Amino acid sequence: MRLAQLIRKRLPEGSFLKNVATLMTGTVFAQALLVLLAPILTRLYDAESFGVFSLYTSIVGFLTVIACLRYERAIVLPEKDEDAANLLALSMLICFSMAVITIIIVAVCGQDIAELLGSPGLAFWLWFLPLSVIGAGGFLAFNYWSTRRKQFKRLAFRQMTYSSVMLFTQIGSGMKWHPGAGGLISGHIVGQLAATGRLAWQIFRDEGRIILSSLSRHSMEHVLSRYRRFPLYDIWSGLLNTTSGLLPALLLAYFFNPVVVGFYALGQRVLAIPMGVIGSAVAQAFFPRATEARRTGELDRVTRDMFRGLLNFGAVPIILIAIVAPELFSLVFGDEWYTAGEYVRWLSIWCLFQFISSPISTVYFVLERQRALLFFNITLLSMGLLALVIGGMQGNALLTIKLFGLSGVIMYVYFSFKIMLMSGNSLRNTIVVLAEAIFKAVPYIVPLLIYVVFWGDPIVSTIIAIITGIVFACIKARTLMWQN
Fold it and tell me: What is the C-alpha to C-alpha distance for residues 356 and 419, in angstroms, rounded to an integer?
């Protein structure tokens, strides 16, 4: 946290990097608090409680995708704040309507849903789904309004509020009442509503007059039609993305066993958390920047600079991890997790290009090319499914991961290049940026490769990789602060 504060002080107010650092502060705080308090939660709640809680949050995840029919994503795009305010109001109206529809669905078939999921005890807690829909959907709408207004401190405090209230509610109820899964679910709901409520209060305190004075039925009908591509196409992209995230674990469990799923889950988590923290913050700050760049004719330059920056930042750490992943996992988690490190080795380059393409993929929304994004997500899901089925039918878990990782690399390299071309950059310029990044990574990567090939002591290799990564991070941090 002190490092983040130092970086924010050195960066100019309102700069892109300062916005990213501000957003990362909230996310890092939330993740750190979760890690620190996890041992307490695991002593208060048993595995069954966490299983029911996981099912509940998975359902919430699917409902969140459709909570505002994706109109919330359009809030950043209009030139006029009046149109954005009407999109915000429209998103909230849809959100409350979805909550009502959820109540009806639970009343009609809630028990059947719980039994289908193999958890009859979940049926009672499904009645609380409307509150989660309001909390999650409301946050999305207020989140994109704050992104439009570049009020990133609000979003950082929202993350801190959510994680703090959720975890302390879960711990407090667990210690006093021992409510089982209900304690975890209630903490999740209370955290959502408290954090979203605080964000809503900040917005209407500062900008309520602008929002309320802009609202009209005619304007709301106009933006409903003007941005109809979001509910028509982007909802399906969101659902496909959610499905893509769940698919590997489900198919690995079907073809192999829970041990293989565990290896994959740990490896994916280690790769996803740090890249996700950075990537989500960059994407949030890049969206309004790309929107402005399109209006001024600079979208090609802004996207190219972002592509270059993400590639230069992510390539070295990911490649270092890929080289020593099995040894690193054995050292950190124990010898039994060596295989998880092998999985990471084959998933790492996919993770790199996913990290690069995810933030700049907002170009699809800026250019309103949601239909093209939907086709990409359909192809991505199909390729991943094909790789998992072919590997699974061969009965070889490592081969399955290799094929799955290769399919991801192919798709996300294509995705990254497609975004660059769409934003106005040429194929030649994109290849040049990629070649420059590889050239800059060589001094950090080659010494480790030479040692691994000719000597290969796992402990020394891991130490070299860690030291190299620290040196790289320090150099990058110093360079960024001096540039700004």
Answer: 11
